[in-house]
Amino acid sequence: MEEILKKTVALLPTYEMRDKSPPPPESNSLEFMHFYKSLEKEQKLEFLEKLSHDFGVDHRWASDLAAKLLDTQGRDVATILQVEDRLRYSLTPRYRLLLTHISRVQGGVKFLVDLRADLIEFASSKISDSPHMR
């Protein structure tokens, strides 16, 4: 489980490279989809909890940027807006890139709809109390 996540969920590109980095190979998306579909319900919950916890937002980076934003309050508006944009970008979970690329492969949108249905089911049945899953 951990191996597939490390292989398919790429690191978030740096702020400067956010629009310039190449997309991950389509095979990553397909491999992720195939693996998830092969899991049992309990395994899916465990997998999604791991995905959301370990491959979500880098909270330390976001905290550092929030502190930097406070420090820039006395500076010019352009600097403040730049730091705000960096903070906004830092709040992007790592798995977002993977899900975006999954939506572009054959059967990807249906997969994402099914994944969302699983998440709603887990949330409504109170099976998971993980704050990352909420």
TrEMBL record:
<dbReference type="Pfam" id="PF17408">
    <property type="entry name" value="MCD_N"/>
</dbReference>
<dbReference type="InterPro" id="IPR038351">
    <property type="entry name" value="MCD_N_sf"/>
</dbReference>
<dbReference type="InterPro" id="IPR038917">
    <property type="entry name" value="Malonyl_CoA_deC"/>
</dbReference>
<protein>
    <recommendedName>
        <fullName>Malonyl-CoA decarboxylase N-terminal domain-containing protein</fullName>
    </recommendedName>
</protein>
<feature type="domain" description="Malonyl-CoA decarboxylase N-terminal">
    <location>
        <begin position="55"/>
        <end position="125"/>
    </location>
</feature>
<dbReference type="InterPro" id="IPR035372">
    <property type="entry name" value="MCD_N"/>
</dbReference>
